[in-house]
Amino acid sequence: MKKNSVLPGLLLACILSLPAFADPHAITMTGHGEVRATPDMATVNAGVTTTAPTAAAALSANNVRMDQVFNTLRKMGIPEKNIRTTGFSFSPQYTNGDATNARRLTGYQVGNEILVRLDDVTRVGGALDTLVSAGANQMSGIGFDIANPAPLLERARTQAIADARLRAQTYAQAAGVTLGSIISINEGGSEALPRPVYRLAAMAEQVPISPGQQNVTADVTVVWEIH
């Protein structure tokens, strides 16, 4: 009688397709690390919006005032690499109109926005006042950040590993087992949480600004052998 050679192959395929179960002789634990630091750089969103009866007049007026803004930033010693155009808009302006009156063209509006990076947060208040004096009439907000978060992130990672180990030791002791060698370490999200961008509703000379502090965080998942 001819043997069926297909059946062993099917059995092997079924065995290989079975899900791998977690190692019963291991413990998995997460850890979190967090370091707080004062931001050392800031960004300012500024711009110029102009309106005029004609498109050419609106654009010309905008260009004049933007040139004043750029020249002022250069006089402040801000390098070109720290100034970036983030938006430019050009739109006709109309009356609302109603059932008896059609919409009517009243003029044109031009907007030009830039993002300015300041490497010294103590200059933010003075920079805002200077920009307004130079002709900027749009201030969409400011933000704070840490220029080099790498050393802080290293500390946060060290804290995260220590936190995971402490948790694992607590559970291992409660379960009557001991921790062995580390099997794997996986890092989750790690970042310098940005300071919120503050909207500026009104401007005054030497606007008081406080950068506060930022959190640099790290999260890890560690697997240990247990005995």
In CATH terms, the superfamily of the largest domain is Protein of unknown function (DUF541), domain 2
CA distance, first residue to last residue: 52 Å
What's the average pLDDT?
Answer: 84
The order of strands across the largest sheet is: 3-4-2-5
Sheet with the most strands, sense and barrel status: 4 strands, antiparallel
Give the CATH topology of the largest domain. Answer: Alpha-Beta Plaits
Report the count of strand segments: 7
Q: Give the count of helical stretches.
A: 4
Shape, per Cα inertia axes: elongated
Strand content: 35-45%
Structure description:
With 227 residues, this protein is an alpha+beta fold. The chain has two domains: 23-38 and 148-226, Protein of unknown function (DUF541), domain 1 (Translation Initiation Factor IF3); 41-145, Protein of unknown function (DUF541), domain 2 (Alpha-Beta Plaits, 2-Layer Sandwich). Helix content is 30%, strand content 37%. It has helices spanning 6-16, 55-75, 124-134, 150-175; strands spanning 26-37, 41-52, 83-94, 105-118, 138-145, 179-192, 214-226. The strands form two sheets. A four-stranded antiparallel beta sheet has the order 3-4-2-5. The protein has a three-stranded antiparallel beta sheet with strand order 1-7-6. The radius of gyration is 30 Å and the shape is elongated.
